[in-house]
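Metallophosphoesterase: structure tokens wanted.
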Amino acid sequence: MFKLAHISDVHLGPLPRLSIQELFSKRITGFVNWHRNRRKHLFGSTLDLLLEDIRAHQADHLAVTGDLVNLASGIEIRAAAAWLRALGDPADTSVVPGNHDAYVPGAYEKSMRAWYDYVRGDLASPQWQEDRHIFPYLRVRGKVAIVGCSTAVATPPFAASGFFSARQARDTVNMLRAAGEAGLFRVVMIHHPPIRGATTFYKRMIGIRRFAAVISTGGAELVLHGHTHLNTLHWLRGQVQPVPVVGIASASQGPGSIKPPAAYNLFTIDGSPGAWELSGERFSLNRAGDAVMPESVDIFAP
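Answer:
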């Protein structure tokens, strides 16, 4: 039995003081949005409560589907690297980037360099190599194959879309097929929801049809995403049966917002090829914002 915890949209705060040069870009819109809206509802203590609860449930692995930072400044990227190191061994935490981690041109490369141990596959070079593709990556943990994909790209002001390329699609299909032939349970991590209509037009994932083709031809048992700050369940066509596509609320979302409070999903994976057993339970911040409580229903229950 393998326990996989999933969090997303960490948005580590507080927002650091930025220089005029750093703000003279798309960051100015995010800076204003933070102080007008996000600052009121995103709390660092909330994230700590989730992580404590995950540890109490003895999860074997932690999946983080993007948006570790807010404006992708150098200070934020370094702080996120320190936060990741505090979680423990990089072998036990897998990360994919979100749109906030690639907020402006050049930020994606800085983020991936700083967080490299958490975004590289088992067979990748132990050293950062800027001229090589990181994604998709493959990590094998017991009977589980974790495939990390990236949709993180810098976008213009007032846009938060993602992009899933044809090259990445081809490589992901090959990884999924190989993992399936090896008899592994395949989990795909991606930031943007690969579901049409799951978010607004300017926040959408470009390449949704391409990703759907990857899942239907390469095969997968579970897809995890973030971006919407919502607890959601959708389905994509798989090789044999529909594949669950699960989203989760922001890991730093406090109570009192129109978005659901912070939560994490804990998946239990057991069985064998052709007879996999998957269950999932959601744990959410309570109304008082001082504890994490289990929800009573299996998230896959009809």
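The helical segments are 20-23, 27-41, 44-56, 74-87, 107-114, 116-119, 166-181, 208-218. The first helix runs from residue 20 to 23.

Cheers.
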